Amino acid sequence: MERGSNVTDRDFALGVLRLAERAGADAAEVAVTRTASAHIDVQRGAPESVSTKQEAGYGVRVLVDRRIGFTASNRLDLADAEGLVGDAVRLTRLHTPEDANTLPENLAPGGWDPTLDAYDLAVGETPLDRKVARAIAIERMMLDVDPRMKGAAMLVYGDAAEEMGLVNSHGVDGMARSTFAYAFLWAIAQDAGSTETGSDVVASRTYDGLDTELLAHRAAHRALRMLGAKPGRSAEVPVVVPPEVGGDILGYIARMLDADAVQKGKSLFAGREGTQVAAPIVSLVDDGRLPGGLATTFADGEGVPTGRTTLIEGGVLRGFLHDSYTAKKGNTRSTGNAQRGSYRAKPSIGPTNLMLLPGALADDELIAGIDEGLFITDTQALHAAINPASGDFSIPSKGLMIRGGELAEPVTSLAISGNLFDLLRDIDALGSRVEWTVGGGIIGAPTFRARKVRVGSAG
Amino acid sequence: MASSDESSAPGGLLAPELLDDILRAALARGAEFADVYAEQAYYAGVVSDDRKITSATRKEGGVGIRVVKNGHTYYALAASADPAELVGLARQVADAAEAERERDVAVRIRPAESPLGGQFTRDSAQVGMDEKLAIVRAGEELAWSGDDRVRQASVRFADHVRHVQIASSYTRTVVEQTLGLSEYHAVVYAGSAGRLQMGTAGRAMYGGPECFTGDDSFEALTKRARENAFFQLDAEDAPRGMMPVVFSRGANGVLFHEACGHGMEADLIERGSAFAGQLGKPVASDLVTLLDDGTIPHAPGSFGVDDEGVPAQKTVLVDRGVLVNHMHSLVTAMRASAAPTGNGRRENYRYPPIPRMRNTYIAAGESAPEAIIAATDRGLYAQESGWGGQVDIVTGQFTTGVQVAWLIEHGRLVRPVRGATISGVGIDVLKGIDMVGRDLEVTKMSGRCGKGQAVPVGVGMPTVRVRSVLVGGKGDAWKGDRT
Q1: Are residue B331 and residue B477 in the same domain, yes or no?
Q2: Which of A130, A348, A356, B151 is the one with CA 20 to 30 A from A404?
Q3: From CA B190, how far away is CA B452, in angstroms rounded?
Q4: Among chain B residues, CA nearest to A196
């Protein structure tokens, strides 16, 4: 990351803002993002692929006669921007006008609190060859767990350091910095004719905080416990869902709690505020200010300060995730959930640190009461297996049978089926230990138990 | 070809002399080969959602520099056309690769023609915004028209034009190519009595709106999205269990994309795919010939040259049941001492190329499609594919979805069912194919295949029956033949 670049970027952003206003926009917003990232893919003890990227770009939203338009470019050049923004204003006049189209006021007149930024210089400054060595070491640690560990189908280390400057015509003027390091391991175990895989992801805001040893051990353990798996039997049984599986499923529930989907009738949560939508032990919150959270920031992608939003409390639907547009449309306040994936993308609603609040039981206590059930260890293709409208799901899965209150043999080639709304109501016990996953968003969950899910089987 | 004496050629691409300098710097510390991928692209889309029309545009360009040393890839990119910056970046990539064994290579590139010339090029600019708006307005109107079960509709038309330039010390050429992809996608939500269902349909193809004809017309796609939503409202839940499945032609080919296509990509072969070590061996029923073809006009997985400058080709992967080829990039071909197959693809200049499918399909067989259904006593007919899929390449276990399906009883489609996911092990499914129809269709699918990078692909198949595969549905356990 270049030193002092943010001053230049802010000047550039203000310059583009003026160009948009001069081109006829009633108001505009410019986000300039500068990212330095690394991606290292390791195979058999060597770097298969090493990529480094230094990128910068900007996205502009223009508000013209109650219409809103978006354009983006990675050419930080004012002369070029003039043409782009002029075109955007002209195009936006062709849009459908809507009263709810808006850009937020400046809700942080004191500036953006930098103490919420998690920025670790080591992420950007650690030499590439040390990152490569660190990635290679993960494979070694995984192989050392057990002689039945055969290798990695995929092992990736990645990191990114990002600075985002945001200005709009209503006085929003902020800058946020963040760093992120992650590693993904997909480990292969083999024994007596059985080949199984186990995967894990770890992520951290700091370079040293990335627990690669935990990654190696968990991925290995998850592969080893599945060795010898055979097709299970079709049944209707209680299931126990650990965080690495439950977190991804909760991500789909979060999408249905997006106020935009709700207002447009794309979510069956529409019109059910204040009613019981889940078991009384279920509380779901989104917290953009969670101390140490992987998604913690001062402000969202529109510059609205983040906060804590209760979505479901004691099983009762309490609220939705809002940006400025849905807030104006719904006559409420933005919850600070406008997300900007990169300079390329216009802001859209998404969770920050989303959490299913924990219960009081240890994980083995969740299992202890089950005579016959399924502990789900792995699922596949949730995007193809969950219907985002009806909530119906039929998810290819693997797991460990639960017999007499204990984990028993591994089973594979299963499909668990049901409906997300029923699943929320069927949750009857929650573990006490929350773990964070990054697969389908930043989602924290304890292990949970559902009293009944249908299992289809190839057996 | 660029003939400008400036460092930046007219399309924002790079002059040949600069490309030479970059490659020289990239190779200065020894390497098998290096390449430069320069791109200037413009993306534009119009969406109707909730009867509100909006648009978005994006202009993006940059240069990716790759050094391959010891078969390992080192990659960096810049968004700049500044010669000093690009040559400096090439030195940095060479430095990063320095840890590898030294070798001495020097090259000089020459211009080459993209073998399919202008086939994938559209003149000048993209479709004007007015035309895009008209397409989306008409789609919106049709999506909402005359049925009070429609709860919401989202219709999108987007296109992009990517000018790319690939200079390679491997091919010793510089090739330019223009790729213009158009995409139409409709999503309709339908509801009644507290229920909500979603139907989708879409196509992507190289070429403009004039290519969207017949079953792929905007009107036909919009109607199909509606019908798919209505169908699911009225259908019962699919059963769960192992059963015979007849797949209708076309987009259900995503089954083979997941079940075996990925496992035949050479980098995944190296990583221990279920198809590793199977070359020359039977991996499918002898009724199955599987192809991956980059030469089908307008199809989303087609191109003149791949993203490493290798001409597209039609590659037979499985010939009457026997695995005969893998899909290679230059790097995997080098390591396997095999010929490149033109499967080295990248999403854009931001990524190094890796082996990717193009348009992957099962070749036509001999059965009449209606005869395949008629020959099935009990089972499932998968009519419209769902929302993509996924595969664990090591175990070969895959998943795909179906939005519209029917129960087959005594050779007839008797009851509509919804919410079926299809899962299994790739080789088991290939070996379980016992009837192949003569009605091949390659579908110009919208959406992208993701493998760390998103690229457009086509899929296809004729009507095919698989003897037994796991259907996951929310309904009752399948009793099938046992009743």
Answers
A1: yes
A2: A356
A3: 33
A4: B395
